[in-house]
Design goal:
heterodimer, A: about 425 residues, alpha/beta, FAD/NAD(P)-binding domain, 3 domains, 5-stranded parallel sheet, 9 helices, B: about 130 residues, CPE0013-like fold, 2 domains, 5-stranded mixed sheet, 3-stranded antiparallel sheet, 10 strands
Chain lengths: ~425, ~130
């Protein structure tokens, strides 16, 4: 079977149109077909479907979706086989330029030119992009050799170029950690990983298998304060920071290197949603969504990293399937669930998705803590639900399933989500608050 | 129970993204108990990590006649942790021709480890 597909023809109207064929978009397209959408078009700007999965050659994907651990390209290909099995039309090498609130989609590609397609529902699944040097204002020269970790990943894993010979990585996010290992295996010397915060931003497993396995030093509470080099990067100045994150320049030192990879966070690639006029969440940078991942504009859904940056592709796919199913259901004329409870980030919670929930069905609520708690942690969903966790760190997204039984008898219009250190007395279990795992 | 002859090693399980903290009790080089795991894979991981640490390896090789320059490959099973770099080096000169099928063996018994390296992606030939 072939991995790339072109629609035999492009229809003027589709029940559901999905923007982006990564782990979110592919799952949304499948979900839409399964819930009854007759025609689904999946559009991607790259020539091969799969999105960023194609350059994520490491394992760690598929534990939920396929019940085994596989690599990114395998996850993409197996998902895409399901997309084709579900008779989804696929248009790659096509760029969505504009979506209107009436769900008229303008797209451009070498095969169809500039054309307009009407959709009963649209699912936005554009993913996220990397923050760059400009986002953190590193002073110094502007030589070549300074790039985001994901760009280096694309160069190494798809295009066959090495970014340099001696590299430093700023930021301990997962992509940076994975690139530290990747460059080491390709014979590039990785001098060290520098992290502004006092704790790593990436998953614990990646600290072990990407840094410790290769004796790559991780410098916490330390950052890059100077970039030096005329044409090519020659040297960095790094310095420890105090607890206000201010560099201690008297303790700065220099590091010789020709490459600096930035792994300093992702931001939702949400311009289409913003241009559309969807309500945006300043905490996530993505659109606000209901429990079925519908934005503030009826019939326009969004899911995956375009809504909030997830830890795992598997979770992106799960969330996008919800969006696709709801988009598909809408096309068959089914009613939306009544959606009348707002979720608010409370104590030590950075953001919560979705932004509203319904007492009609079971939904997954995802959030991140702001500050790490390295010990028993109490999660609270207003007064209706409590759960104890062993720890809670910003690097790991937390999810709770909220079903109708939890919301029975709740008469308010908003619930606060808190994640605070466990206090045995105040948090004594009570029979009145049911919990589910 | 731990006693004077018991040695306890602490690992962070890399078996999945959960990252459970494992404690492995061993007496005279034999694992007698694994604690802290939340699944069967975790218990196996703790035992293996103490006796013979292994990791899955992913890297890329050259591919001719496809739309991309590199073919992603992975070890069919985990390889000894201490030989990861050696295995990656053994794959550095390898070049395959499109078409490639996902799962196809790219290099058998890489670096004498007894482990095959397989393609992680299918690639069609381009004209």
């Amino acid at each position: 079977m072939t991995i790339s597909a072109e629609p035999r023809h492009l229809d003027a109207r589709y029940d559901v149109l999905v923007v982006g064929a990564g782990p979110a978009g592919m799952a949304a397209a499948i979900g839409a077909r399964e819930m009854g959408a007759d025609s689904v078009l999946l559009v991607d700007r790259e020539r091969d479907p799969g999105g960023i999965l194609l350059q994520c050659i490491h394992s760690g994907f598929g534990l939920h979706a396929f019940k085994e651990e596989i690599t990114g390209p395998e996850y993409a290909e197996r998902f895409f086989e399901q997309v084709l099995d579900h008779e989804v039309d696929v248009l790659t090498d096509a760029f969505v330029m504009d979506v209107t609130a009436e769900r008229r989609v303008k797209l451009m590609s070498p095969s169809v030119g500039v054309t307009t397609v009407d959709a009963g529902a649209v699912v936005l699944a554009m993913g996220a992009r990397e923050r760059t040097r400009g986002a953190i204002h590193i002073p110094g020269d502007r030589p070549s050799g300074v790039m985001t970790a994901g760009l280096a990943q694309k160069m190494v894993n798809l295009e066959g170029y090495l970014p340099g010979r001696r590299a430093v990585i700023l930021g301990s996010g997962d992509i940076g950690l994975i690139m530290a290992r990747r460059l080491t295996l390709e014979g590039v010397e990785v001098v060290g990983v520098f992290e502004l915060l006092a704790h790593p931003s990436g998953l614990g497993r990646n600290i072990v298998q990407c840094l410790e396995d290769f004796d790559i030093p991780l410098h916490l509470s330390t950052t890059v304060v100077g970039i030096h080099g005329r044409d090519r990067l020659e040297r960095l100045t790094v310095a420890p920071v105090d607890d206000q994150r201010q560099p201690l320049m008297d303790r700065a030192w220099d590091v010789d290197c020709d490459t600096l990879l930035l792994s300093i966070g992702l931001i939702p690639d949400a311009e289409l949603a913003r241009d559309l006029g969807a309500r945006m969440d300043p905490l996530t940078g993505g659109p606000m969504v209901s429990s079925t991942m519908e934005t503030s504009l009826p019939g326009v859904f969004a899911a995956g990293n375009v809504v909030h940056v997830n830890d795992l592709a598997d979770w992106v796919s799960q969330e996008a399937r919800v969006a696709g199913e709801a988009a598909g259901a809408l096309s068959t004329g089914r009613m939306r669930p009544l959606e009348d409870i707002r979720l608010l980030p409370g104590d030590n919670v950075g953001y919560v998705v979705p932004h509203t929930i319904s007492s009609d069905h079971t939904q997954t609520v995802s959030f991140r803590v702001r500050k790490p708690i390295y010990g028993d942690t109490q999660l609270r969903l207003g007064e209706v639900h409590r759960r104890k966790l062993k720890a809670a760190v910003p690097a790991e997204m937390i999810t709770i399933k909220v079903g109708p039984h939890l919301l029975e008898g709740f008469t308010g219009d908003a619930l606060r989500v808190d994640a605070v250190p466990f206090d045995a007395e105040a948090d004594a279990p009570s029979d009145a608050v049911g919990g589910e795992r | 129970m731990a006693d004077s002859t018991t040695e306890t090693a602490v690992y962070l399980c890399t078996g999945c993204p959960l990252g459970c903290r494992l404690e492995v009790d061993a007496v005279a080089g034999d694992v007698i108990e694994v604690r802290g795991h939340t699944c069967k894979r975790g218990e196996r991981y703790g035992r293996q990590e103490y006796l013979d640490p292994r990791r899955p390896l992913s890297t890329t090789v050259w591919v001719r006649g496809a739309r991309v320059a590199r073919l992603p490959v992975r070890s069919a099973e985990s390889v000894p942790r201490d030989r990861l770099v050696e295995v990656a080096e053994a794959l550095r000169g390898v070049c395959v021709d499109a078409p490639v099928r996902r799962g196809q063996v790219v290099l058998a018994d890489v670096a004498g480890t007894g482990v095959d390296v397989i393609a992680s992606r299918s690639l069609e030939p381009v004209g």
